[in-house]
UniProtKB/TrEMBL annotation, chains A, B:
Name listed for the protein in its UniProt record: TetR/AcrR family transcriptional regulator
Organism: Prauserella alba
InterPro entries: Homeodomain-like_sf, HTH-type_TetR-like_transc_reg, HTH_TetR, Tet_transcr_reg_TetR-rel_C_sf, TetR_C
Cross-referenced Pfam families: TetR_C_11 (PF16859), TetR_N (PF00440)
Classification via SUPFAM superfamilies: Homeodomain-like (SSF46689), Tetracyclin repressor-like, C-terminal domain (SSF48498)
Lineage: superkingdom: Bacteria
DNA-binding region residue numbers: 32-51
Domain HTH tetR-type: 11-69
Keywords associated with the record: DNA-binding, Transcription, Transcription regulation
DNA sequence: ACTAGTCGAGACCGATGGTACCGTCAAGAT
DNA sequence: ATCTTGACGGTACCATCGGTCTCGACTAGT
């Protein structure tokens, strides 16, 4: 077994693929393998050297972007922290491009097991962040259901599209959940 | 302009197509046009005489089945009615076959605008039923957010698969939502 | 120099959603 | 009774998509 020989993988290629995928998602264009490879100036085989399936590519592209938003600075109260986090999340997720992206992610995850695994990991990470905020103020309360209520409303509204996902909705929901958690503690 | 001539449409064909689609969904097999047409002993063209796209077929098939569950008999209190309805909904939706069906529905809706329209109509109908239960006891409260919390948790958990959707979860959620509505009224 | 392994590019494959066309069949119009 | 209209089952066909295979070019370690 040799250590390693041959040409090394090009990180620039990986970055270009992810950038192409995010661009297509943001523009609402159909995210096909050919489109990604073409826009990234990359061979399709190169994509499969880095990811096991198309869904995995798309999900990693979006996960990378989504992780950036996570205001965890404390405002001095459970209510304040919760409102800040949920409102910021709703505001970001409610933009048309972002909502379209999230819908695309679910669409991929429902058809590709690799993508489903990445989506599960991504959502687990987001729930964990919210859970940490709650735990900071109410360490002994069972927050699983409350956390699912927050992200449930978010995803449900984005997928169905019957109600708005914006700052106001986030604040209202945060206040409701905070009161619910207070009552349960 | 003549009134109408020619052979009439065969409702048996429509029923056979819907039955084939539901069967495939329930069995977890890939729901392709060819599979539907083959199992229903029907030409593909006949499917397109009744529906505009594949997604619309699948959604109508599932909508038909889902509408059947709707216990609206009153138990004597908001808490009781809510618990009965939500628990029954969670129990039904949490079965593996049904959950797979719901995931399939979303998958279709995300790729087909006709299917999306049917899904929007279907979910609106379900929300309306829950809304009516709440309105019976608290006619003046704004229940939109509470309703979305219930169905949000349901869909979110089914799509991500990180937590169970069963009778116990439904009861816990119903109790929480009932308390929240009481506090808001 | 040699070798192994990545690179972009494109041909290729199987499956899928959807359309076109066929001969057949049923029912209202004449 | 015959004609006309349009749905029927079946099948060939098309474009597109995810994914695989192959190719010559390139590059870094042996």
């Amino acid at each position: 077994m040799r250590a390693h020989t041959g040409r090394r993988r090009n990180d620039a290629a990986k970055a270009a693929i992810l950038a192409a995928a995010t661009d297509l998602l943001a523009e609402g264009q159909p995210v096909t393998l050919g489109a990604i490879a073409g826009r990234a100036q990359v061979g399709k085989q190169t994509i499969y050297r880095w990811w096991p399936s198309k869904g995995a590519v798309v999900l990693e592209a979006m996960t990378e972007r989504a992780r950036s938003l996570a205001p965890t600075a404390s405002t001095g109260s459970l209510e304040g922290d919760l409102e800040a986090f949920v409102a910021a999340t709703f505001t970001a997720a409610g933009t048309p491009e972002y909502a379209a992206t999230l819908r695309g992610i679910v669409s991929e995850a429902l058809r590709d097991e690799h993508a489903a695994a990445v989506l599960a990991e991504f959502t687990a990470d987001r729930r964990e962040q919210l859970y940490l905020i709650i735990e900071r103020w109410l360490p002994d309360v069972d927050a699983d259901l409350a956390v699912d209520q927050v992200y449930g409303v978010l995803w449900y509204r984005i997928l169905i599209g019957h109600a708005t996902v914006d700052d106001a909705a986030g604040r209202q929901l945060a206040a409701t959940i905070a009161a619910q958690l207070r009552a349960a503690s």
